[in-house]
Request: fold
Amino acid sequence: MFYINPQYRGLLESASVIVFDDVMTSGATLNEIARVLKDNGVSHVINWVLLRTLRPSQRSEHV
Reply:
């Protein structure tokens, strides 16, 4: 789903990268982005999220 443009791969080698996301639901997208970055040489990925949806078990408690 995601890929790194080959012309930028050298810039990522051993880098630390911060990924910003407005809303995290399951975390699958952030995990996939981190995997692609690490597969392309990034040494450390930090995810910063503004809001997180409730887990299914928590949703029933708030209804």
